[in-house]
Amino acid sequence: xxxxxxxxxxxxxxxxxxxxxxxxxxxxxxxxxxxxxxxxxxxxxxxxxxxxxxxxxxxxxxxxxxxxxxxxxxxxxxxxxxxxxxxxxxxxxxxxxxxxxxxxxxxxxxxxxxxxxxxxxxxxxxxxxxxxxxxxxxxxxxxxxxxxxxxxxxxxxxxxxxxxxxxxxxxxxxxxxxxxxxxxxxxxxxxxxxxxxxxxxxxxxxxxxxxxxxxxxxxxxxxxxxxxxxxxxxxxxxxxxxxxxxxxxxxxxxxxxxxxxxxxxxxxxxxxxxxxxxxxxxxxxxxxxxxxxxxxxxxxxxxxxxxxxxxxxxxxxxxxxxxxxxxxxxxxxxxxxxxxxxxxxxxxxxxxxxxxxxxxxxxxxxxxxxxxxxxxxxxxxxxxxxxxxxxxxxxxxxxxxxxxxxxxxxxxxxxxxxxxxxxxxxxxxxxxxxxxxxxxxxxxxxxxxxxxxxxxxxxxxxxxxxxxxxxxxxxxxxxxxxxxxxxxxxxxxxxxxxxxxxxxxxxxxxxxxxxxxxxxxxxxxxxxxxxxxxxxxxxxxxxxxxxxxxxxxxxxxxxxxxxxxxxxxxxxxxxxxxxxxxxxxxxxxxxxxxxxxxxxxxxxxxxxxxxxxxxxxxxx
Length: 620
Prior knowledge:
The protein is of the alpha/beta class. The protein is 15% helix and 21% strand. The chain is built from 9 helices and 27 strands. The strands form 6 sheets. It has an 8-stranded parallel beta barrel. A 7-stranded antiparallel β-sheet has the order 1-22-23-24-27-25-26. It has a 6-stranded antiparallel β-sheet with strand order 8-15-12-13-14-9, with no helix packed on it. A hairpin with a 2-residue loop joins strand 12 and strand 13. The chain is globular, with a radius of gyration of 26 Å. 44% of the residues are buried.
């Protein structure tokens, strides 16, 4: 199995260049091992590297100083610090401690909550009962075979099975209805009323339901009325209709009929009660989540079909995505018009339209389960790292380096590595959902290095979290590789400076010449990323290079000086500093602080705590 990538400009032994390299091989044998392949890649304007980011830091569990030490954060920053208006918003508090931090307001309008706990009481979204049925995305359903009154708990339906297109190896015929569980609600829409399915009987085509859910009213329904499952992404949410075929309605203060995309955008600018994702106030930009160029990506997960026009027929996948993409463009245009000059980035856009946003989040990357995606490919992690890093025609989404090169500038493309890749309850570790992590928990340092070095050589920001269910709310992790304060000439944050070369292939895979070990040289160091399935001896640039001196993974970050070559394990990475005589001596963190070009000290953040605030533990 081979992959024909990267494109020629990423891996370019063209005839004339080959001739020049051949001459250099004869004249400079040491350099020839170093200059194997290279790709010039622009470096987006921004802070020195590593560039670090975090999604949803928890301000009530972590100090403001801990939250402010990142270069970028995604979340809701318009709430008051500790619910005290006199202390200002978290936006103001973080900017005071770190004027250079970029704060991106989290936003999604495709997935909204139908209910939430407020003050210990579950309340329903007060707007949702007024929405037209077509504003909800539903699967292909059926009709009621018998009429029901408002008290009926048993609902008989006409059909039990549906057919249509599917993704991958998923079946082309399926049961329409499934019963919900304690963690997975299965709600259906019946002429504006929402019901929760708690039991199913396929033999009699009967559903046992709870009526009038999530603020809707239980009312009588005649036979023949449509009933269909509502699409959801996570429990407690519904996927709404952003497509251009969505009907218009004039609701809740609108001056004219609106599409759901227009309605939800307008409501998000004024509704700080959090039923919509509030986008008022101050921010440097926005991160649009769950707003991909396609809607058929949901068919890879829990959804079996999508029925936009609600005629109980599974829609064609190509038609679905075309209408959905036009709706996403409408939302992007609304942001550009109402927030000129603000960055707009997306998470997992599943497309190649790099120019319409200012960056892309590659969430759950790298992914240890890549090896399971193709059971015939024993090197799955190697293959998919290269596909998603450089881009590949077999993937619907472009590569990391393509979003950096062709996206808006400044560019906020970032990688988020997740320690755990499936539900924490599945792992029998629900305690990790508590930000006060158990003492036994230890991050996966190898996985972190693999992700961080991928971000460094691509010139992107980096995030490491325990899980996507909570992100930084599960706890903020800090690693030796995030700063070099323990070295004698340590600069602290941003210690690598800026890249001074493009991405270079240092070692070629034994079988597939397009794959390899990749590196990039910086002002103050050299970064190596090994996505291969075996350990590799990697040539180093001329001179001496020193490992970081750390306190976490001391088998790797030993402070040792390397020269000539170094062994980098499979699916791992390594950061080396330019060796300076005496650099191996450890010094206290406070003696290694350094101010950036604005005069702001990135290590010693301005402390300001109110009486009673907890003191954060020492940063290791």
